[in-house]
Amino acid sequence: MRYAGKQVLVLGGTGFIGGRLVERLLLEEGARVRVLVREWSRAVWVSRTTAELVAGDVLDPKSVALAMKGCEIVFDCASGPATEGGYRRTNVEGTRNVIQACRDEGVHRCVYVSSIAAHGDEPPEVIDASTPVVRTGRDYGDSKAEAEILLREAFNRDRFPVVIVRPTYVWGPRSSLFTVRQLMDMKHHRFRYVDEGCGRCTAVYVDNLVDVLLLAGDRPLIEGKSFIITDGGNHTWNDFFGFYQRYLGLPRPPSICSSSAIDRVSCLLLDTLNGLVLRLQGQPAPLWRKVLRRSAHEAAKKLNRRFISRWDLSKYSRTGTVDGTAARELLGYIPSRDLATGMQETLEWVTDQYPDLKDSTSE
Amino acid sequence: MIRMAIIGCGAITEQMHLPCLLSMPEVTLVALVDHDRQRSDELAAKAGRSIIACPLEALSGLVDAVLIATPPDVRPHMVRQVADMGLHMLCEKPMANDVAGCRDMIEAARSARRVLAIGHMFRFYPVRRTLPALLVKHELGRLVRVEASEGKPYAWRSRTGYTVLRDKVPGGVLFNAGIHTVDSLLWWLGTPSNITYVDDALGGLESNARITCMFPNDLHCTYRISRTCHLPYVFTFHGEAGSLSFATNSIAAYSVTTNARTTRYECDGGPKNELSCWQDQMRDFIDSIQNRRDPLVSGEEGERAMALIEQCYAMKRQRPLPARAPLPGVMW
Fold first, then answer.
1. Which of A30, A123, B87, B178 has its CA 20 to 30 A from that of A103?
2. Helix residue ranges per DSSP H, chain A
3. What's the pLDDT tens digit per position in B143-160?
């Protein structure tokens, strides 16, 4: 029990990754855990634990400072709401508040959960911990890249005790982006393989990621380091999504081609429409805005039945590798769950939490 | 005409109690009370008319009865205070955090000779009120099995967060939402035995729970509830000759399946929309005050539902926490 008796703050503890981290810190590590809660309705998962829940928001410096009182270790798993500017506010302005509060409180270690999205849509063939982050104009990736830059500046200035963990595509129980979404898309016949699923699957199972976070919060002499995390293994997306497909008992979904100009343009159009919908959000809205928003939404919905976003296209067609040497050598990270074990757990969770999913795949 | 105040100006007051009381000519809503004075001022202004926002102590002589819609942890103390002021009380569910609190409230009302009604308002839905008669009417034979389930990701915009805070409530989804179903099952079927209980709590409040039990006449019952996932909102009563089902939020609609054929029905008479059901609850409360009778859901009835939940939580407390974190939401 590396964390026995230690006071830990988890930001984003109501979410998918942070929530799992809280459960393991409490049950397996004996930590005392505090969680900052922005919306009470989102706390139903973490409220199952003995974590101390305090009301606040990373955008409110006072509530961050209050939540951090007496904490030795901070895990920042917060991410913004998917509204216009939401990611930027949480990931950039929120990170500023976190850095300041950590300094004021004399926190020993701040583990920041970034994302592979910080490398942009077209990352190099081989990504490792030293690959620089880039800004590409996409809200989420740019906000994570800027947060990393802030944290690195803080480290360079006064040895701010940050460790950056950059997970790839996080899947497992409670994953909406890499588990529930694909199962739902398959069920509703919206799922598309890219290049027949031959791209390299560099995803990471949530418990493997939490293993890394626990190591990153505890290992000495790794301040200022970044780690990029995958499950390891040599799998394709075909191997990965094949588990979902077999679980649902569906025939193989069709595939789109990353080198086809038509497919690429369609994906670009889908992104443009989705971006437009996001920009037109908010109330009150004049009639023209509502009409445009509705039209863009309907058009995107239709296009979404056959195509995917550019980000997904790039992700699923990529054949390059992710080099996790730094995590292995400096953290001693060896994935505890392989693809089959993680999938068994995930699909057990899906059966429990989505009991109708398999019965109604003919919809 | 009865003069009333609402104590507690949270989401349920804004969404249901306020529209209900303002729509009833037999009630004059006089005052709103909340520890957050700004909130009660805001709601009073929104409600219009001549409703005032005031502290609890100011209610004496001003009103005849109160509707208590505060978080449950403060209710026993509040009921004693209000009963001492000579006011009748309709109290939101769950009436208190434990059976001891329920008993305090019942005793406070009894010694002050005031009505204490509990807001298990689903009992005022016609399909639930008439269920025993419907089971007889459709000749389903002896009941052998009852199944109930309900669940969806929690989205209630609680102002105080008390439904997820361990220091405010003794339980999660079963206590907060499941108590309606527990109350209805006990009302229809009597006292259960052979109770088993599992949930997904890891030392905190459950978000998924399952109860199995036996009701009199060998009637087996299973009930599952969740606030993390979608489950069918349905009661199904299986008899030897067929089954009867209705959605847990159904007001009058139900269906009967016999010989592999399902037919939909509507209950005759009674309220047809949610607001009318809430108004019926209020009329029952007023009538019990005026005619000095017990309300449909008395304090004792509220205590009975709480006692079953407390029994379930006692089983939970006997199990040691797992050494490794189980899958989220999976009951153990």
1. A30
2. 16-27, 61-68, 86-88, 94-105, 139-158, 181-187, 206-216, 237-248, 261-279, 287-304, 310-317, 325-326, 339-353
3. 999 999 999 999 887 778
